[in-house]
Design a protein that fits this description.
The structure holds two protein chains of two kinds. Chain A has one domain: MetI-like fold (Orthogonal Bundle). Chain A is mostly helical. Chain B is of the alpha/beta class. Chain B folds into two domains: 112 residues, Periplasmic binding protein-like II (D-Maltodextrin-Binding Protein, domain 2, 3-Layer(aba) Sandwich), CATH 3.40.190.10; 100 residues, Periplasmic binding protein-like II (D-Maltodextrin-Binding Protein, domain 2, 3-Layer(aba) Sandwich), CATH 3.40.190.10. Helix content of chain B is 39%, strand content 21%. In chain B, helix 1 links the parallel strand 1 and strand 2. Chain B is globular, with a radius of gyration of 18 Å. The chains are: A mainly alpha, B alpha/beta.
């Protein structure tokens, strides 16, 4: 159970961090007119197509004493980043990045530009328009981003296997724990954890799809309706 | 023919399989990983013909449960362990020996995962016998198999590793500093191989096992840091 709570802690941390980083990036991608925007979009989507081994490999190099991140960490804190919870958070933020940015970007883009123009004409600045119009209207996107980055981090395996070092309570996430138990032929315990994870994943996806189908629409009608 | 081999055999197996292919024309596909992982996979019907474990227990258990071809169990090598640090490490492992692991500059020590990898169990037992396990256990990080443990220290993420001598002699690591763990704390790991009952190419598997037992095979194993069991 220890490994499950560790995974939940990791997933919550990553989801919160990704929401904070993802919002400005998604905002810029949604509203910028720069022609080279597709370049950044491609970078954001990279973790979707790269195998975790590629990310894990580069993460391990970057976090080591010869890597930029590892060197910085050793100067600041006296130890490297690999085999630490912080290291896992950083690697997972990269790994789950598109799962936060893409839903945010899509929902920002879907906001009616006329409303934004009206808001500007009425004298609201960009930040005020974002807070009062874009954000409330994108609420399903925000929830989707939060929940998907949470769920994707919870299901992470390859990157953690490569940079975690399998430390109980620090880097042994539930997916690694299940793997170890299967290899050790402890099918009972493996099944117990796997079923729990299955149930959590199903509940999370139900929630995301329900939000996007606006199942609870009547409760929101006043302020999020189009 | 498919061979499952413990991760400490990674480099030796490359040469063994190439040599065997050149002699017989039989193609050998080698998969390396942790012995415990293979043991679980073979129980699940993995399509291997021959299994080289890094211990004696897994092959014996396979034989006991009827998954191995009776009479094919063979002790092919004795595995040795070293403490390894990168060439540029400030630690003088040959001089400080076990004390090197207590050095504050050694923040992480990589070993293989004890529940799954015989080398992991051997490393823990050696640390216990040397009397420093309690002091260093918070420094330990675990590779999924002995190769990953080696890679953790080779990449500099861990400052020292207790790894197979066969890996310390490999091209990527032979420039590092290694100290051979003496026999009083570490009895060489007896490694067995066995032909699997489900083998599709049983003749090939037996032939390969025979080749490993022969002079050419043993010379390759010795070259990669394995000792040959006495009386073979």
């Amino acid at each position: 159970m220890n490994s499950l709570s560790l995974s939940l802690e990791l997933a919550v941390s990553v989801a919160v961090i990704l929401l904070m980083i993802g919002m400005p990036v998604a905002y810029w991608l949604a509203f910028s007119n720069w022609r080279g925007k597709f370049l950044l979009e491609s970078v954001v989507a990279l973790p979707l197509v790269l195998p975790p081994t590629v990310l894990g490999f580069y993460a391990l190099l970057a976090m080591g004493p010869r890597g930029p991140l590892g060197r910085l960490w050793i100067v600041l804190f006296g130890h490297g980043l690999a085999f630490t919870f912080t290291g896992l958070v950083l690697a997972s933020v990269v790994y789950s990045f598109p799962f936060a940015v893409q839903p945010l970007m899509v929902s920002f883009e879907a906001v009616d530009r006329k409303l934004l123009d009206a808001s500007a004409l009425l004298g609201a600045g960009k930040w005020r328009t974002f807070r009062r119009i874009v954000l409330p209207m994108s609420l399903p996107g925000v929830i989707t981003a939060l929940v998907l980055s949470f769920a994707h981090t919870l299901g992470e395996f390859g990157v953690v296997l490569m940079v975690g070092g399998n430390l109980a309570g620090v880097t042994r996430t539930v997916s690694i724990d299940i793997y170890d138990r299967v290899q050790a032929l402890e099918y009972g315990e493996a099944n117990h954890l796997a079923l729990l994870l299955l149930a959590i994943a199903f509940a999370v996806l139900c929630f995301v799809y329900a939000v996007n189908r606006r199942v609870w629409m009547p409760a929101w009608k006043g302020w999020a309706a189009k | 023919m498919r061979v499952a081999a413990a991760a400490d055999l990674k480099f030796a197996m490359d040469e063994l399989s190439k040599d065997f292919e050149a002699r017989t024309g039989t193609k050998v596909d080698v998969t390396t990983g942790s012995s415990g992982n293979f043991f679980a996979q073979i129980q699940g019907g993995a399509p291997f013909d021959l299994f080289f474990s890094a211990d004696m227990d897994y092959p014996k258990k396979l034989e006991a449960s009827g998954l191995a071809e009776p009479g094919t169990l063979y002790k092919y090598a004795l595995g040795q362990m070293v403490i390894w640090t990168p060439a540029n490490s400030p630690i003088d492992i040959a001089k400080d020996k076990w004390n090197a692991l207590l050095d504050a500059r050694v923040q992480k020590i990589a070993i293989a995962n004890p529940p799954l990898a015989p080398y992991g169990r051997a490393a823990v037992s050696a640390l216990q016998k040397a009397g420093i396990y309690e002091q260093v256990k918070t420094k330990l990080v675990y590779g999924e198999n002995i190769s990953q443990a080696a890679q953790f220290v080779q990449s500099g993420n861990a400052q020292a590793g207790i790894i197979a001598r066969s890996l310390a002699l490999s091209p990527g690591m032979k420039d590092g500093k290694a100290w051979e763990i003496p026999a009083d704390v570490h009895t060489p790991i007896e490694q067995d191989a066995v032909v699997l009952k489900s083998a599709k190419n049983k003749t090939g598997a037996l032939e390969f096992l025979k080749f490993v037992q022969g002079a050419a095979g043993q010379a390759i194993l010795e070259k990669y840091g394995f000792a040959i069991p006495v009386g073979k």
